[in-house]
């Protein structure tokens, strides 16, 4: 008695080396963004801890040491930028990893399919233009031509 396995092309492509390489690249992008976020968070935590005023014996506790307002603003901007960039990168790369998207072209195809467009080779340049849009485009082209002169 023999049993036959019925595999679709999608299931076969899951086991291919190209698929494994794509998933590894997506994973490394996400983990790179995660490492960047963790390093930024650690630096921000150290920055906050180093500015914490702890008086020693016989020092006043109501007179913190002098500091530069400009330096504080620059470091806060740097820490905030690092944390937000890392978090946004994690969001984007994690979403792309889950949706199996590796390029902008794949993202475009997936979004078009999600919005109900069955053709993946859909191109706006091939669509006919209505007369009103043609008039506006002609006016803009004439304006640009007159600006070049």
TrEMBL record:
Q: Where are the transmembrane segments?
A: 30-48, 73-99
Subcellular location(s): the record lists:
Membrane
Q: What is this protein called?
A: Altered inheritance of mitochondria protein 11
A GO CC term attached to the entry:
membrane
Q: Gene name on record?
A: AIM11
Q: Topology with regard to the membrane?
A: Multi-pass membrane protein
| Species, as recorded | Lachancea lanzarotensis
Keyword Membrane appears in the UniProt entry: yes
Of which family is this protein a member? Answer: Belongs to the AIM11 family.
């Amino acid at each position: 008695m023999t049993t036959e396995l019925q595999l679709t092309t999608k299931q076969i492509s899951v086991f291919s080396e190209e698929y494994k390489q794509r998933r590894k690249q997506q994973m490394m992008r996400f983990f790179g963004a995660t490492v960047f976020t963790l390093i930024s968070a650690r630096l921000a935590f150290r920055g906050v801890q180093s500015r914490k005023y702890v008086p020693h014996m016989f020092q006043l506790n109501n007179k913190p040491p002098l500091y530069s307002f400009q330096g504080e603003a620059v470091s806060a901007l740097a820490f905030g930028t690092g944390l937000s960039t890392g978090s946004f990168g994690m969001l984007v790369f994690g979403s792309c990893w889950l949706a199996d998207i590796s390029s902008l072209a794949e993202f475009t195809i997936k979004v078009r399919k999600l919005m109900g467009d069955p053709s993946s080779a859909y191109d706006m340049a091939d669509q006919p233009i209505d007369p009103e849009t043609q008039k506006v485009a002609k006016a803009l082209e004439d304006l640009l031509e007159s600006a070049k002169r």
